Amino acid sequence: MPRSQNKVASKARRKKVLAMAKGSYGRRKNILTVAKNSVEKGLTHAYDGRRLKKRDFRALWIQRINAAARVNGISYSVLMNKLKIANIDLDRKALAEIAYSDAAAFAAIVSKVK
With helix as H, strand as E and coil as C, how does the chain read? Predict the structure, then answer.
């Protein structure tokens, strides 16, 4: 029985890798083995970056809430504790947006929990 080769699928796989490597410098964009390594490493960094982005944004929200809270005479940790005691269910993202865009509303929230 003759050997079967699926030229269509293998060419498509190679084209997909080279398309993902488009824009790279030197042999990374047109030599399959080098492009494959480059693309794989890039996808790994992209995966890690999506996880790191969540971490970075949470840190940014905490910094914004802390800065706005200290302007209103309370620390971040005390504010978050008092919000929890008062059953005010605002997450850090929403609180940071209020602190950033509407200082009066944030001051009203702080005065309510003080």
Answer: CCCCCCHHHHHHHHHHHHHHCCCCCHHHHCCHHHHHHHHHHHHHHHHHHHHHHHHHHHHHHHHHHHHHHHHCCCCHHHHHHHHHHCCCCCCHHHHHHHHHHCHHHHHHHHHHHC
